[in-house]
Write a structure and sequence with these properties.
Helix content is 42%, strand content 24%. The protein has 8 helices and 9 strands. Strands 1, 2, 5, 6, 7, 8 and 9 form a 7-stranded mixed sheet that branches. Strands 3-4 form a two-stranded parallel ribbon. α1 (21-29) crosses α2, α4 runs antiparallel to α5 (107-130) and α7 (204-213) crosses α8.
Length: 266
């Protein structure tokens, strides 16, 4: 596999040749959806799971930064920052947040969904305090939310004129021969939304993030269940591990080559 430079791109503006895993995944899943989202840029209504995911990730990022700095974890502080983030997200959308059926949520509905978000974070906070995440040590996370960029150099065609770029939730180790990364996901407790080892192995995101490091990669998915109040007592964090090697990266370069040929990305 040809090598290209790995760039820490925090603060750098995104440019047209910068391809995120989600953008690439949208094209693979449905080219028409890619066309409407990225070419036509048709506005989409903000669904409730967008601010919920943003707020949980923000609170967990604060927690891990404190953990890495050796600070005492303060749940009340994180809950306060969650509320601030929530209000910012709602204001950004001018209060127009919709449920999964397309119904506009009123203030009472929004309060209910924020309480849900607090509950999910509480499940994670408790697991960190009690060290009950299976085969995963939260204290091993050294950095959070790092933005990496790497030019795609195809193994036979050479440079493709585009970059893979993504913001990695958690970095455990970038210095060893095998990179160690992790990502936080919130997931429905319904059987159709549940995670598994098979689902982790199938994630394009893990392949893209591993490619960003320029190394083989051990990738962890830590799953926070979107548990109801009724089922809160039996909620548990799940952890699924998957690996990526040069074989996976060669396949990714082939995907990107087809992407460049078949879209107006350039």
């Amino acid at each position: 596999m040809n090598q290209s430079e790995v760039i820490r791109s925090n603060g750098m503006p995104w440019k047209l040749p910068d391809i995120s895993p989600s953008k690439l995944g949208t094209w693979l899943t449905c080219p028409m959806k890619f066309y409407y989202n990225y070419i036509r840029r048709i506005p989409r209504k903000s669904k409730i799971f967008f601010p919920q995911g943003t707020v949980v990730h923000y609170a967990v990022e604060l927690l891990h930064n404190d953990l890495a700095a050796g600070k005492t974890l303060d749940k009340e502080y994180y809950l306060m920052k969650m509320e601030e983030c929530w209000l910012d997200e709602v204001e950004r959308e001018r209060g127009e947040i919709y449920d999964n059926k397309g119904n506009l949520l009123n203030e009472k509905n929004l309060k209910f969904h924020f309480k849900e978000t607090e509950r999910w974070f509480d499940v994670y906070f408790e697991a960190v305090e009690n060290n009950t995440i299976p085969n995963f040590d939260p204290a091993s996370v050294k950095e959070t939310e790092i933005d990496l960029l790497r030019e795609v150099v195809h193994h036979t065609e050479g440079p493709l004129g585009v970059n893979i770029r993504g913001k990695i939730d958690w970095v455990i180790d970038l210095d060893s021969d095998v990179a160690k990364l992790a990502d936080l996901k919130t997931a429905s407790t319904h059987w159709m939304g549940r995670w598994s080892k098979i689902k982790a192995d199938a994630q394009l995101q893990a392949t893209c993030y591993g490619y960003l490091t320029g190394k083989d990669c051990d990738f962890s998915y830590v799953i926070v269940p979107k548990v109801s109040e009724k089922d809160r007592a039996k909620a548990a964090i799940e952890h699924y591990q998957t690996k990526r090697t040069s074989k996976d990266y060669i396949a990714l370069e082939d995907i990107v080559l087809n992407f460049v040929k078949q879209t107006d990305v350039l």
